[in-house]
Amino acid sequence: MLLVLVSTVIGLAAQGYINSTYRTWSRVPASGATGADVARRMLDANGCQVVDIKRVNGHLTDHYDPRDNSLHLSSENLTGGSVASVAVACHEAGHAAQKAHGYAMMKVRTALVPVVNFTQNTWMLVLMLGLFMNIAGLTTLAIVFFAFSVVFQLVTLPVEIDASRRAVAYIEQSGMGEVDVRGAKKVLTAAALTYVAAALTSILQLLYLLARTNDDR
Ligand SMILES: [Zn+2]
Questions:
Q1: Distance 27 CA to ligand 1 centre (A)
Q2: Which segments cross the bilayer (predicted)?
């Protein structure tokens, strides 16, 4: 119970912080450019001329998809000319740059995706079977499956932080204003905290699972 509460509070706090930081900086105009403009320039500067920029529906649904090698930006970040739009668009361009430059942690993360998709969908079922049928081997397998999600989130952290680092470095060197740089740092730090919160929550869940299954034996 306490764990659910702690996880929820961590998650909500991180979510609230990114939302309010994003809102603040989405009211500050960037130095005469939209998210798409700056992301395009950053992509070209990183040798990513072939990377396309597409529109995606929703709020903060922005992502880079390695499968079609395209940035998918939400309308507000694509055509919005705020400091927050530029920060988010450049962060996604940072992921494209990671792929172009063969950034190792991104390769590890991409390789883990199919494994984690499988383990995330099955760990709970395996755990239930293990507990109901009282088969310790199945319970252990479920925990191993869950541990993959934890590893995945830990690998995601450096990938996200590196994409933000590339974004801020580009905004800085591209000669945009001091406000653009300061805002990008704030928005992207807040975004990184949501990944830290997610990783922390799953570590807590793993510890809980380990403690509970040890009690049962
Ligand atoms: Zn990212």
A1: 22
A2: 123-156, 192-211
**DSSP annotation string for 2-59:** HHHHHHHHHHHHHHHHHHHHHHHHHTSBPSS--HHHHHHHHHHHTT-TT-EEEEE-SS
- The model's pLDDT over 90-100, given as tens digits with 9 standing for 90+, comes to 999 999 999 99
CA of 160 to the centre of ligand 1 (A): 5
Active site residues: 92
User: 206 alpha carbon to ligand 1 midpoint, in Å?
Assistant: 24
Domain with 26, as residue range(s), is: 2-216
pLDDT at 215: 67
C-alpha Rg value of the chain to the nearest Å: 20
Is 146:122 a contact under the CB 8 Å cutoff?
no
Model confidence at 213, pLDDT cuts 50, 70, 90, reads confident
- Return residues with CB closer than 5 A to ligand 1 (ion): 160, 163
Please state the domain count of the chain: 1
122 CA distance to ligand 1 middle (Å)? 26
What pLDDT score does 73 carry?
97
Sign of CA dihedral 176, 182, 185, 191: negative
- The token pair at 55 is 């529109």
